[in-house]
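Q: Here's a chain of 211 amino acids. Please give me its 3D structure as tokens.
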Amino acid sequence: MKILILTNGEYGDYAFCENTEVYDCIVCADNGLKHAKRLQLKPDYIVGDLDSCSKEDWLYYKEQGVHVDVYPSQKNETDTEIAVEKAIALGGTEIDIWGGLGSRFDHTLANVHLLLGALRRGVKLRLCNPQNTVQLMDKKLRIQGKKGDILSLLPLTPLVRGVYTTNLAYAVCGGSFEIGKPYGVSNVFLEEWVEVSIEEGLLLVIQVRDE
């Protein structure tokens, strides 16, 4: 089951918000519903403490029968984490978060940490905004793109061993990445797909649209 989560990060001109028909379910995290409204999308669920969205907006969707789960403002989870948990509980095996990267670096980094919790449960989670798609891997990953796309590989664990790449300009064959040395930044697609595999550790894979 493929689920889309809308949060209140960066969307730019919404040009990257395409192919919503591929998703089986849409979940809005708090003021992500503002973006849903601008995109003329009807979410299936709205979750969060609703402290950053207008009452008018969530009542607009509630009156259309959208299920709204209101949480207390003083809680241990972020609204995005609540949305991810909701998506997994609904049976999501592939989850895309739009707007999970933005000007609030603390929220951005917190969302990167959510990738690990999903990976541990066998769920493919991606963070998407106009310039980036970020995901976490522990074995093998194939990424679609186009020639000339930028791909950065950064370790999330102190050491990532046995790194192999296919169709990248700067090939890695049995290499190691270490936290503190950003060796894997700004590689380049040679074909319309790239494959990365690792033997040990956790590796962030960041596909960049540098326009």
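Q: Can you summarize the key feature?
A: Helices lie at 32-38, 55-62, 79-89, 105-120.
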